[in-house]
Structures are given as C-alpha cells and as structure tokens.
Amino acid sequence: MLMHSYEGVHQQETKMAKNEVKLIGYWGSPAALRVEWALKLKGVEYEYIDEDLPNKSPFLLQCNPVYKKLPVLVHDGKPLAESLVIIEYIDETWSSENPILPQDPYERAMARFWAKFAEDKCVPTTVGVFSKLGEEQEKCTKEARENLKTLETALKGRKFFGGETIGFVDIAVGWLGYWIRIVEEIVGINLLEEETMPLLSAWVQDFLDVALVKERLPPRDKLLQLNKGFREQMIASST
Amino acid sequence: MLMHSYEGVHQQETKMAKNEVKLIGYWGSPAALRVEWALKLKGVEYEYIDEDLPNKSPFLLQCNPVYKKLPVLVHDGKPLAESLVIIEYIDETWSSENPILPQDPYERAMARFWAKFAEDKCVPTTVGVFSKLGEEQEKCTKEARENLKTLETALKGRKFFGGETIGFVDIAVGWLGYWIRIVEEIVGINLLEEETMPLLSAWVQDFLDVALVKERLPPRDKLLQLNKGFREQMIASST
C-alpha cells in the first residue's frame, strides 16, 4: 500500500473502483481547469466534483489535509494535490496517449523551467495589476509585460510551447491567456499587446481554439462577474 | 539543435567537449549545494565554478539571462537553471545510477509534492524567523514549526524521505537542516525541537552523516559569519 508511507497527508484512502478517477475542482479555478485539460488530452474518464466554495466539503478536507485546497485528483482511492504535480502524474500514469512532457531530458527540463517561470513571475505580477491601484498597479503592469515578453521568447519558431501540439507549458499557462483578457477588461489596461507580443497574442488565440481546451472553458461573463467580486474584496482588504 | 527552440533563454551554446559538465555555484548557496549532491549521487564528473558574488561573471549572465542567478548546470554546452529542475534533469540523464525520484508515478508525485511544500512553506517561514524581529518573528516561528511538523509526517516509517536511502526530497530539503541549526544559533530560538519533532531531528543528523553529503557541506563557521551578515542587511533594509 503506497498510502502507508505518506499517511500524514493522505490518511484516508477512499474506497473506489479500480482505476476510478475523481477530480475535485471549482468552475472558476485555473488550477482545476488545467488538470481537466490534461485529463481530456489523455482521454481519461473521470468524475468531476464541483466544490461549493467557500463551504469546503469534508471529502476535500479529507483528501488534502495539508493545504485544504483544490484541485485534488483521486485515482484508485489515492488523493493527490498541487496541479502541476498532478499533471506530471497524469502524464506518467497514462503514458501511452498524447505525451504532455517531451521525451528528451533537456526539453523536459526546459518545459518545467518555463512552467515555473510563468507561475513564479507572470502570475504574481498579473495578479498585482488586477488587485492593486495607482503607482503599485503601474509597477506591476511594467513587470507583468516584461515577464510576458520573456515568456514569449520560448515560443520562437513554435505554434505552441509544446511545438506543433499543446504540451506541459501550454496546459500550465494556457488559462492565463483567458484570464488576462478578463483582467484587461476589468482594469482597463492592455496588458498583453498584440503589437509588442505578437507570438504570445497569437498563441493565446490558438490555444483557446483547441477543441478540448475550448469545451471546458468557464463562461466568460460568469468568470468576469466572479473576478470583479474578487477585485473588490482584494482592494477593500488592502486599504 | 535543441538550443534553437528556447533561444530566448539560452542564446549562446557554449563550446564544450562531449558530455562535459560544468556547475556554476557559490560556496554559500543552498540551491547550488543540492545540485552538487545530486551530481555526486550519480557519480557524475563535473567542473565546479565558484562565482565571486556579488560580481556575477559574464559566463553566468550568458547562461542564465532570465534570472541571472546561480546555480546553472551546463551539460554538452547547454545551460539549465532552477535547482529542482536541474536535479530532475540529472536523474533522467544519468538514469542508470542511484535513482533520485522513485519509479512509481504516485510515489514520484508525492516526492514532488513534499519538495514543493518545503520550498513554498518551510523555507519562507524559516527565512522569516531569521530576518524579522519582535512579533513578526514570533509569528514566523510559530508557522515555521507547524510547517516543519507537517513535513515530518512524510518521514513516518522511513529513515530518509527516500526510504532507506536518500532521494529527491532529501536532496531538495537537506540543506535546510544544516541552515536551521545556524539560524537557531544566530537568533537564539530553538526552531526544530528534538522533543516535538523527533523524526525530523533524527533525519537532519542522518542526512548530514551521509558521506557524499558531508564532504560538500560548507564550513560551519564560515557559513555562520556569512549568514550573520545577511541578517544584518535584511534587518537594516526592513527598518
């Protein structure tokens, strides 16, 4: 029993049918969305459980006692948290279908490097543009644009970060393209400019046009309303 | 040529002999230290280049234009940054010797989960204990202890996080055990208490006793002096 070794995190193995897959998500969560894209890419059948936030279910708390957050993938009764960790797990477990990470070790490392760069640099500065005001917002806007331009360099000569088809970086970062357009509408700043970042702008459109990506995108209007609410809360709590 | 695809980061391939390995590090850098442990574990021959910080060398800036920071591994002329990404690359490239990550996908995912937990939770709160004063320091101390206790749960029934031998989590987190004792001496707080965290305390000692780990540890007194200087700078810049 694998569970035994890490029982601190995953104390309770859930009784499930062999190979059964459940995903605990939330319709407005980018991290849950990217796990869904990975599952769809692999053609994995799964049960999707939408959490009623902020009222977290006992099942979520049981499956992720360390962070108490979603998404959580439960496979064969064994729960797993952290979306990028889950995506690598999906790639290794259903390894015969549509590879998510490249096969070559150096290319794999570069994919991990860029996914981490987006997570550590592009996301926080974009959130800053969304949640700050005045000079702080201007500073974040400048930094976010610089980071996005750096990210764009990895697209040179490629349609997707994964090459001709979507891969790890696309799945990890793709939601940001959808969110950025919503952030831009809410705050009235053109963050990802087509003139200065033509490759990244085209990639956003190409990625969102991929059938399996498009079919799981949350409705734009609903997401806009949700994020307007988030912005009001963030500004209220910082003033 | 792999370099082509990501030339934004790695514009200049360095001319090197086939399979030549260089590591750009700094004697007091935990991130460089863990890459060295991984190379030693695999028995990889490498040239170690110690940077003269804060005067970064042109070679470092050429190899890591995105972050301009060390460590950087250069293998066959191809540079790679981000220590945990480098360690996975080392494991995949020299795959026949001493596996660093487990073979089973779920165990691999759990190793990545815990390495990330330590990085995201244990490290920042420990740095807080080291760099803050008064109430802020007390808050960080409480949080750091809670995070370390959570990390300890992954050691239940195991000598090392990797089992009977050291693995990914040990290599990723091991430096923290060495640094924590130095932090404790500098700030006069017993952070990792033997009574409340017996497994983690024993692990620190066991890990630091592993021959290949011990032989690359920076001298304690020199590291103490370096970190005393860091603390003074951090406190000065926050007041």
Automatic annotation (TrEMBL), chains A, B:
One of its GO terms (molecular function) is glutathione transferase activity. It is an enzyme of class 2 (transferase). Residues 104-230 form the GST C-terminal domain. One of its GO terms (biological process) is glutathione metabolic process. It holds the Pfam family GST_N. The keyword Nuclease does not apply. CDD domains: GST_C_Tau, GST_N_Tau. Keywords: Transferase. Residues 19-98 form the GST N-terminal domain. Its EC number is 2.5.1.18. PROSITE patterns: GST_CTER (PS50405), GST_NTER (PS50404). GO terms for cellular component: cytoplasm. It comes from the Eukaryota. It catalyses: RX + glutathione = an S-substituted glutathione + a halide anion + H(+). Transmembrane segments: none annotated. InterPro entries: Glutathione-S-Trfase_C-like (IPR010987), Glutathione-S-Trfase_C_sf (IPR036282), Glutathione_S-Trfase (IPR040079), Glutathione_S-Trfase_N (IPR004045), GST_C (IPR004046), GST_C_Tau (IPR045074), Omega/Tau-like (IPR045073), Thioredoxin-like_sf (IPR036249). The keyword rRNA processing does not apply. Belongs to the GST superfamily. This is glutathione transferase. It comes from Tetracentron sinense.
